[in-house]
Amino acid sequence: MKDIITIFISAVFINNLVLYYFLGICPFLGVSAKIESALGMGMAVIFVITLANTISWLIYHLVLVKLGITFLTYVVFILSIASLVQIVEMVIKRFSPPLYKSLGIFLPLITVNCAILGSTLFMIAKDYNFIEAVIYGFSGGLGFTLIIVIMASLREDLDYADVPAIFKGAAITLITTGLFALVFMGFSGLISA
Amino acid sequence: MQILSATLVLGLSGFLFALLLAFLSKKLKVEENPLIEKIFNLLPQANCGACGFAGCKAFAKAIVSNPKVFSPCISAGKTVNEEITKALGLKEVLSERSFVAIHHCGAEENEKKKSYVYFGPKTCKGANIIGVFDCAYGCLGLGDCVVVCPVRAITLKDGRIYIDHNICIGCGKCVKSCPRNLFEIVPRSKDLPTYFVACNNPERGANVKNVCRRGCIGCGICTKFKGSPFYLEGNISRIDYSKVMGENVLKEAKEKCPTKCIFNG
User: Fold this and answer.
1) Backbone angles phi, psi at B183, to 5 degrees
2) pLDDT in tens for each of the 265 residues of chain B?
3) Cβ of A64 and B13 within 8 Å?
4) Is B9 in the A-facing interface, judged by CB distances under 8 Å?
5) ∠ CA A70-A141-A187 to the nearest 5 degrees?
6) How many A-B residue pairs are in contact by the CB < 8 A criterion?
């Protein structure tokens, strides 16, 4: 239990996918202009990342390790994640149109989101058991959502600020992200691991 | 041995996923109105968004569910728009660009009273927080709309917004950009310039006069001509664009307006 809480807090705050590993920067910058769409993207990421970690753990331990072909990890993971997202998209489109409307456009976008692949690979590298892997995926997604929503609310207010012309747009967003990452480094004393 | 199992695992999993996807895409296919697909295929699929919808697919969906919102696709040529009109079952081929934007504030910077000198961010969105002018409804004159206009039909001169109706495509982006909701998309008048009342202040005449020399005081002179499309909405005059308009009436109303706040684009 203690391990799981440690994993959760570490994945959300300390080893945050965006701010610590710099993964998923593209959707982080692309979809953080409005809180609403940022939240949609976040939800889609939580959903897919949890599912991807579950499936990937099963594939890795039940197939790849048994046959001794762990060098295929990257290819097989990408393959399974891409197919998984497609399937999820179809299922949602069929059974829940409102959910599709809010998540729909983000789902294809995160097929190749490196945060997803990153999370599955870290989960393997850290040698987690099944439960830990699922929790790790979920909390990784939650961390991503937290950051992207905070960023979106910051960027909405940035519209009012008098930003020098050369810093407008992506530049000021990246600077803000950098400051943000520094702030989150402060959490690293929370857990010594 | 290893090379065999590797090939098998990768090939097999690829094959299985492909099979599953093919099966599910047939099984879970969502029935859409075939007309949407048909119109979508007619469209240029440039996803320019000039129609005001999020891409060609959204545009096709919107006009199929409600043909009334159909205004010709700007990227497509005349023939394509005629075909779409036919597919929708509309009789009249709508003239190209049948909507224009109008701006409900005609006061130049020195015609409206300033509350104070504003040094904040040079955007309307920012200035709207504190006001700048005494009139709480008027244009802030910092040109958020100028930036968003995809065809550059909007210009800012002496603190007043001018829309070139020859260029305007009626996409509605300016409507969303204005923090004071001064823009309106109206049907383009046929064979004559589109007239509009350039004031958005709903207060009574005396109060309007206190803050602006140009504002509509709600005197109602423009509504009194025979066949006048003007009507009073509270204390502001508005034009009913569904009425048939004679140019003489509009011209006369424009001349007789005591504060000269009727314009044509």
Assistant:
1) -90, 150
2) 788 888 988 898 899 989 998 998 888 777 778 888 888 888 887 776 667 677 788 888 888 887 766 777 777 777 787 888 888 877 665 555 677 889 999 888 888 888 888 888 888 888 888 888 888 888 998 888 898 888 888 999 888 999 998 888 777 788 888 999 999 888 877 778 888 999 988 888 888 888 888 888 888 888 888 888 888 888 888 888 877 777 888 888 888 888 888 888 7
3) no
4) yes
5) 105
6) 57
**Residues of B in Cβ contact (< 8 Å) with A94:** 28, 30
Q: Other C-beta atoms within 10 Å of B16: how many? A: 11
What residues have CB less than 8 Å from B94, skipping those under 6 apart? B70, B71, B72, B81, B85
Residue A146 burial (CB < 10 Å; 0-12/13-18/19+)? middle
Cross-strand partners of B133: B114
Domains detected in chain B: 34-88 (1.10.15.40), 99-264 (3.30.70.20)
Per-residue exposure over B108-137, b if at least 16 CB sit within 10 Å of its own CB, e if not: eeebbeeeeebeebebbebbbeeebbebeb
Answer for the pair B250, B188: CB distance below 8 angstroms, yes or no. no
pTM score over 0.80: no
Q: Hey, what are B96's tokens?
A: 């190209």
Nearest CB partner across the interface for A67, out of B9, B20, B21:
B9
Q: Tell me whether 0.90 is exceeded by the ipTM.
A: no
